[in-house]
Amino acid sequence: MKIAIGSDHAGYELKEKIKQYLIENNIEIIDVGTNSTESVDYPDFAYDVAKNVIDGNVDKGILICTTGIGIGIAANKVKGIRCGTCNDLVSAEMARKDNDINVVAIGSRFVDYELAEKIVDKFINTQFLGNEISGERHKRRVNKITEIENM
Q1: What is the pTM of this model?
Q2: Do the strands 60-65 and 83-85 form a parallel or antiparallel pair, or are they unpaired?
Q3: Contact by Cβ (8 Å): 100, 79
Q4: In order along the chain (151 residues), what is the average pLDDT of each group of 10 residues?
Q5: How far is the C-alpha of 145 from the C-alpha of 37, rounded, in Å?
Q6: Angle between helices 69-76 and 42-54 (to 10 degrees)
């Protein structure tokens, strides 16, 4: 598996810890930045992660900012991205199972490292239910999201 990861200045320290965790677990990463706690604009990093996902350079993306909300909104502007802000385990699991998110956004001020690691695990290891017969409604709903995106 290969993952693109990016953050703004508020998410930098958590990004670095998550990045190390991924490397220790033999997951290849593309780090799009930022590379310090100096103030930057999160949409730049959201776009870079999203573009890597859409272009097929990576399997999934991880984004981190103060709340996870702004960076997630920015990522969702890229056609084909389904980014969910997940600051707890239930939302991380359900966003993958039901919505087939391909990028997860995490809020550095709401999630400590231990929880972030568990959220990343849920995001990576939970399968989309739309691939199962019982998950037809989820597949139908994700397809409708794509239809809206194409309008």
Answers
A1: 0.95
A2: unpaired
A3: no
A4: 98 98 98 98 98 98 98 98 98 96 98 98 92 75 90 88
A5: 35
A6: 50
| Nearest one of 34, 85, 81, 32 to 55, comparing CA atoms | 81
Q: Kindly tell me the burial class for residue 18, based on how many C-beta atoms sit within 10 Å of its own C-beta (0-12, 13-18, 19 or more).
A: buried
Closest C-alpha among 67, 78, 9, 3 to residue 37: 9
Kindly report, residue by residue over 44-70, the tens digit of the pLDDT. 999 999 999 999 999 999 999 999 999
User: What is the C-alpha separation between 58 and 131, in angstroms, rounded?
Assistant: 21
> Which among 146, 3, 1, 128 has a CA at the least distance from the CA of 64?
3
**Which residue do the tokens 């399997």 mark?**
59
Query: Residue 44 has which token pair?
Result: 């730049």
Rounded to whole angstroms, how far apart are CA atoms 143 and 146?
A: 5
